[in-house]
Amino acid sequence: MAVHAFTPGFESYILLVATSIICLVGLYLLVSQWGHGRPCRFFSFWGKEAFRDGARVFFKILILDVLLFRRTWKQSKRRWAIHMAIFWVFIFFGGFIILSIFALVLLYLDPNGLGGNVSHYLTNLYLPYSLLEYLILAACSIALLRRLLVKKVRERTGFSDLFLVGSVCIIVVTGTIAEWFSGYDILVGPAKKNWDLALEFLSLHLYAVFLLFVMTIPWSRFRHIIATPLVLLARRGGD
User: Fold this and answer.
1) Contact 211, 10 (CB under 8 A)
2) pLDDT tens digits, residue range 2-15?
3) Which DSSP string corresponds to the chain?
4) pLDDT tens, position by position, 149-179
5) Distance (Å, rounded) from C-alpha 214 to C-alpha 209?
6) Residue 231 in 3-state DSSP?
7) For residue range 16-32, what is the model confidence (pLDDT) as tens digits?
8) Is the pTM higher than 0.85?
9) Mean pLDDT score of the chain, rounded to an integer?
10) Within a 10 A sphere around the Cβ of 35, how many other Cβ atoms?
């Protein structure tokens, strides 16, 4: 996956830049809508509400409700476990992708010095990367199967929900297969190593990340990643 050696082509750079721009434009329009045409008005109002009871309450809500999903824990321990697995592994993998992009730049600028050392260090992190991929694979599989097989959940599942869960599954599955063929996987290991196939699936994985996630954040239900924490902090918790 992204932590291993990968040399993106020109189309990959175009993809990264174009989808990131679409995402940023969408986020700007979203915040403008919340601020009735003025993003600064929204942030000013939000800041006053979020810190109305002081910094101590703000950080308490940030940790308990935003980062640890306290409300979900109270509603369902099973949903809480799935949310925690998907959220935190995605955060960890997102950090890996950012570090990998940074390492690619350093590798291009200084292949025999700092760039080479950083790339070598990231390659050696295959063990936690491989373990976490199975955790998030199990979590998103359970989430998808519940929406397909459990009648009560299926009845209240719309297209936007399926798109959200399905996108996560596609991202995770393509990344996992890339890991299998890379020879680094903790279970498969070098038995099925095929570096060409690993790079092909890694390309699919990155396309999925940017086309199904990064680009669609402000335009789909993925916006709840941003909207829900902002609402919780502005309301200072609550139901």
Assistant:
1) no
2) 445 555 567 777 88
3) -TTS-----HHHHHHHHHHHHHHHHHHHHHHHHHTTT-HHHHHHHHHHHHTTT-HHHHHHHIIIIIIS-HHHHHH-HHHHHHHHHHHHHHHHHHHHHHHHHHHHHHHHH-TTTHHHHHHHHHHTTHHHHHHHHHHHHHHHHHHHHHHHH-HHHHHT--HHHHHHHHHHHHHHHHHHHHHHHHT--TTTGGGG--HHHHHHHHHHHHHHIIIIIITTGGGSGGGHHHHHHHHHHHTTS--
4) 888 888 888 888 888 889 999 999 998 888 8
5) 6
6) helix
7) 889 999 999 999 999 99
8) no
9) 83
10) 16
Q: Residue ranges per domain, the chain? A: 10-234
What the block records as the tokens of 18 is: 């174009």
The two structure tokens encoding residue 110: 């200084």
